[in-house]
């Protein structure tokens, strides 16, 4: 960590990812849309002063505001541009040499009550080299002229953003005869003079002219694609314009994926309270630990001096108290949350944009597949979707999703569609698992509900407080939570139908099917009635949980995307448990699930269905159209996978302990990746070790997995304390939790009021 300003890095250093994606050193660059550019530059006046290269930059800049603009202006003259809808003025002023005329124009903005431009971009040198045939006298005059202009630019820099654009290198082999005197050696001499004079002048001034030197680096990689050896190709100048937009607009618009030039956000009131709470927990735990250690030393066995025999302590060493376990858990959690904050809220560690290549996705997939197969063990039981198998399923799916996120594979539609199936499979397991539990156990008690809700939501609630993010931001947890409550309500509402009751009378099975049909009808209605859905979730306090950016559209979109798969999971569980009860399937070790003939036919159909879905997903051309079909067809590949995994007895009898280990902490992995593996709320990649991408991924991944595992342990420990089995104690804890959320809402309201 050098402690430098990310704006300096953005303006001076970086590298290409692939051929066209520019990656600034240490920070992320946002790709501005036309609407965002207009919102940033509303009521602003921008001026570009210089030669034909600056004119190129001017056109690329105004195309960010209005892509329909054509390069039809006068070549050697001033070119105005105005967007009346946003009151934006952008002017190009033709001053190809740093001379008295340029000085006079700049000086006019420093005098009297003349309106100053908000952004000034200046640069020129190649015309001086060309006109004076690269003479040393011309360079000396350039130094004199820029020395006279520098104080004026600094004066403007007090109230405006002023950028001096260094000269890009040329491709000498392509230059015409009239430009042969423009050599890279001459350009370097002019650039060196400009930087030295501007830097020496700014030492004595509070304001500073920003040197735009990154264009040189971009040109070094792309100038050979130039049409004439002098002017940059369009993609390169567009990159320069986007860098300019990021330098000025990031501090105004604060885009999530634009960490360059963004100041560290101030701590909110709730974050300060959380910091004090975790600090007190750490201090409290250290005090209790010291007291216990002293007591332990005092009560140690000691030798009786008279008899020479060892005496045993009268008081036995007490077990760890609930308070100590609570403080220990919060102490560890406080340290972990500090790491979260430093990674993704403080400007301490570097962040980089994602860049997708097929190798960055498929090679890690092949690697973890080999590891998973290597760690193969026998299962304790051979039932369909037994515990080891479901943990394994969650584990490999989570690892694939993590690789998908860090590689930026969402830009590749076939991969995106397959990842959507994996997310659907998680929800399928939610429907299958919770339905099976309620159907078999018949336990609809408050304790069970509170345990599930606590384990699902504890980490997300803490992150909402520490990272200052809304609950809906971590969309998967709200999704799973709501579906759990829907499953619970469906089965718990009168009449409660469980397996034990249904075994006595087959009519109860029809009653349960009727409940499931009602659930399906409600899902269908809400998915095609956005207004009804938004009305339900716009009521307080639901609106506080499910709104994102002031509305619940994002929540409706996420819910709608996998709306049927939980129902499919419940229906599958019902059919499977009914077949199991009637002994219509064989789940012995090594036995096929059905008779050989039926098993072979089902296995063939499953493989064909699995491959057919993959072919369809790979041939998708339009994400919107494929997303419309996804809720109805994703179950095909999920069921095909379950049958392929369970019909052959030998396949059902083994599992990968490697994948299963990750499956046990899959929820924590999914949530933690937002801030300590990825960066900028999943938009970029966290860089702990710059310059060594592979080593960085290894180190950050190791820390990330360890943290996720530790949080899983902390959640389990706290669940035993916060959600006790005793009903009267549980009721008291629920009242405390209600008080906690009331206080959180109160402080949140205060926070919002202070922001407005």
TrEMBL record:
Q: How does it sit in the membrane?
A: Multi-pass membrane protein
For whether the record's keyword set contains Transferase, the answer is yes
Domain (NXPE C-terminal): give its ranges: 22-72
Q: Which segments cross the bilayer? A: 269-291, 355-375, 396-417, 423-440, 452-468, 474-494, 506-526, 561-579, 600-617, 659-679, 685-709, 730-750
The superkingdom of the source organism is Eukaryota
Enzyme Commission number(s) of this protein: 2.3.1.45
Alphabetically sorted, this entry's keywords are: Acyltransferase, Glycoprotein, Golgi apparatus, Membrane, Transferase, Transmembrane, Transmembrane helix
* A single GO BP: carbohydrate metabolic process
Q: What family is reported?
A: Belongs to the PC-esterase family. CASD1 subfamily.
Put simply, this protein is called N-acetylneuraminate (7)9-O-acetyltransferase
Give the organism the record lists: Sylvia atricapilla (blackcap)
The UniProt gene name for this protein comes to Casd1
């Amino acid at each position: 960590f050098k402690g430098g300003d990310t704006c300096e890095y953005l303006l001076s250093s970086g590298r290409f990812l692939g051929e066209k994606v520019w990656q600034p050193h240490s920070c992320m660059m946002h790709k501005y849309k036309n609407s965002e550019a207009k919102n940033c530059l509303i009521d602003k006046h921008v001026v570009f002063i210089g030669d034909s290269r600056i004119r190129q930059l001017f056109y690329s800049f105004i195309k960010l505001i209005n892509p329909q603009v054509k390069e039809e202006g006068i070549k050697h003259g001033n070119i105005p541009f105005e967007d009346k809808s946003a009151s934006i003025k952008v002017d190009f002023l033709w001053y190809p040499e740093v001379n008295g005329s340029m000085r006079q124009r700049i000086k006019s903005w420093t005098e009297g009550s003349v309106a100053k431009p908000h952004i000034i971009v200046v640069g020129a040198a190649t015309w001086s080299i060309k006109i004076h045939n690269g003479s040393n006298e011309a360079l000396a005059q350039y130094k004199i002229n820029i020395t006279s202009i520098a104080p004026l630019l600094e004066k403007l820099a007090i109230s405006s953003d002023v950028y001096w654009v260094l000269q890009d290198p040329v491709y000498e082999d392509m230059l015409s005869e009239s430009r042969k005197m423009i050599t890279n050696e001459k350009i370097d001499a002019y650039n060196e003079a400009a930087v030295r004079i501007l830097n020496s002048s700014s030492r004595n001034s509070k304001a500073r002219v920003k040197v735009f030197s990154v264009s040189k680096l971009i040109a070094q990689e792309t100038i050979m694609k130039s049409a004439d050896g002098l002017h940059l190709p369009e993609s390169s100048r567009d990159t320069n314009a986007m860098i300019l937009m990021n330098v000025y607009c990031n501090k105004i618009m604060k885009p999530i994926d634009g960490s360059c030039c963004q100041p560290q956000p101030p701590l909110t009131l709730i974050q300060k309270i959380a910091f004090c709470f975790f600090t007190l927990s750490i201090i409290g735990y250290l005090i209790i630990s010291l007291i216990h250690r002293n007591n332990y030393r005092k009560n140690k066995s000691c030798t009786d001096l008279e008899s020479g025999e060892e005496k045993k302590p009268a008081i036995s060493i007490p077990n760890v108290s609930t308070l100590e376990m609570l403080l220990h858990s919060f102490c560890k959690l406080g340290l972990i949350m500090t790491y979260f904050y430093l990674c993704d809220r403080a400007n301490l560690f570097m962040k980089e944009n994602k860049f997708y290549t097929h190798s960055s996705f498929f090679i890690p997939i092949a690697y973890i597949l080999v590891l998973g197969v290597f760690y193969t063990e026998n299962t304790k039981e051979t039932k369909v979707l037994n515990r080891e198998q479901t943990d394994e399923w969650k584990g490999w799916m989570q690892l694939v999703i993590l690789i998908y996120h860090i590689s930026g594979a969402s830009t590749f539609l076939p991969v995106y569609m397959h990842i959507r199936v994996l997310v659907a499979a998680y929800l399928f397991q939610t429907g299958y698992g919770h339905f099976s539990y309620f159907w078999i156990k018949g336990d609809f008690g408050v304790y069970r509900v509170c345990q599930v809700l606590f384990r699902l939501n504890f980490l997300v609630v803490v992150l909402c407080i520490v990272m200052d993010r809304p609950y809906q931001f971590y969309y998967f947890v709200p999704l799973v939570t709501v579906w759990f409550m829907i499953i619970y309500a469906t089965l718990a509402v009168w009449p409660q139908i469980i397996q034990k009751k249904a075994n006595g009378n087959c009519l109860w099975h029809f009653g349960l099917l009727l409940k499931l049909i009602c659930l399906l009808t409600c899902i269908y209605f809400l998915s095609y009635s956005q207004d009804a859905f938004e009305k339900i979730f716009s009521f307080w306090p639901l609106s506080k949980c499910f709104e994102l950016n002031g509305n619940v559209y994002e929540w409706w979109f996420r819910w709608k995307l996998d709306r049927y798969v939980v129902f499919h999971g419940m229906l599958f569980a019902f059919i499977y448990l009914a077949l199991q009860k009637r002994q219509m399937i064989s789940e012995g070790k090594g036995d096929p699930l059905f008779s050989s003939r039926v098993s072979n036919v089902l296995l063939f159909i499953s493989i064909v269905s699995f491959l057919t879905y993959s072919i369809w997903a790979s041939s998708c051309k339009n994400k919107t159209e494929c997303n419309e079909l996804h809720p109805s067809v994703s179950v095909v590949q999920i069921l095909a996978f379950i049958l392929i995994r369970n019909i052959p007895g030998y396949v059902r009898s083994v599992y990968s302990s490697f994948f299963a280990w990750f499956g046990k902490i899959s929820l924590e992995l999914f949530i933690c990746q937002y801030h300590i593996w990825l960066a900028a709320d999943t938009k970029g990649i966290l860089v702990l070790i710059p310059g060594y991408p592979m080593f960085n991924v290894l180190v950050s991944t190791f820390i990330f997995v360890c943290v996720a595992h530790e949080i899983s342990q902390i959640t389990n420990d706290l669940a035993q304390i916060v959600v006790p089995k005793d009903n009267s104690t549980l009721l008291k804890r629920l009242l405390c939790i209600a008080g906690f959320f009331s206080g959180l809402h109160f402080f949140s309201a205060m926070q919002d009021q202070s922001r407005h």
